[in-house]
């Protein structure tokens, strides 16, 4: 009778362990599916960041090009002898004021978009985040 009771207790433990194993496998499958979905979202987000960075670089290059053109036009207007005849003193002073505020500040390297650069560095730079598959965790470099 004792042997039968021991076998029954062992059988019950085995059944519980099998149920625990099934639950653990189901939970593992759910977590792996969630991880795969998050990896896809991360990949899409990285691609979107890359696209936006390329757009920003193109826009900044175009802005610098337009600023150089505007600076050249301004300098040409201010240097030409006919410029003083065409432009009134008030117009010259307005152009000078605009040039000192807009062009001077905008053409200084590193001065423009400092707030945007900081937010970009802290939030958007996807090169700071890499996925290390050997450790199965997100690692910040």
From TrEMBL:
Domain of life from the UniProt record: Eukaryota
A GO MF label: GTPase activator activity
Coiled coil: 21-80
UniProt keyword terms in alphabetical order: Coiled coil
Naturally occurring in which organism (per UniProt): Steatornis caripensis
GO cellular component, one term: spindle midzone
A biological process from GO: mitotic spindle midzone assembly
Protein name from the UniProt record: RGAP1 protein
């Amino acid at each position: 009778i004792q042997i039968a009771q021991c076998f029954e207790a062992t059988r019950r433990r085995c059944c519980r362990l099998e149920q625990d194993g099934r639950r653990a496998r189901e939970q593992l499958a759910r977590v792996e599916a969630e991880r795969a979905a998050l990896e896809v979202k991360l990949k899409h987000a990285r691609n979107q960041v890359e696209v936006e960075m390329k757009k920003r670089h193109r826009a900044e290059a175009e802005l610098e090009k337009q600023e150089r053109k505007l600076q050249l036009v301004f300098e040409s207007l201010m240097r030409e002898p006919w410029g003083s005849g065409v432009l009134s003193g008030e117009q010259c002073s307005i152009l000078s004021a605009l040039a000192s505020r807009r062009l001077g500040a905008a053409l200084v390297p590193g001065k423009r978009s400092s707030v945007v650069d900081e937010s970009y560095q802290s939030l958007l730079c996807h090169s700071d985040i890499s996925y290390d598959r050997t450790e199965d965790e997100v690692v910040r470099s």
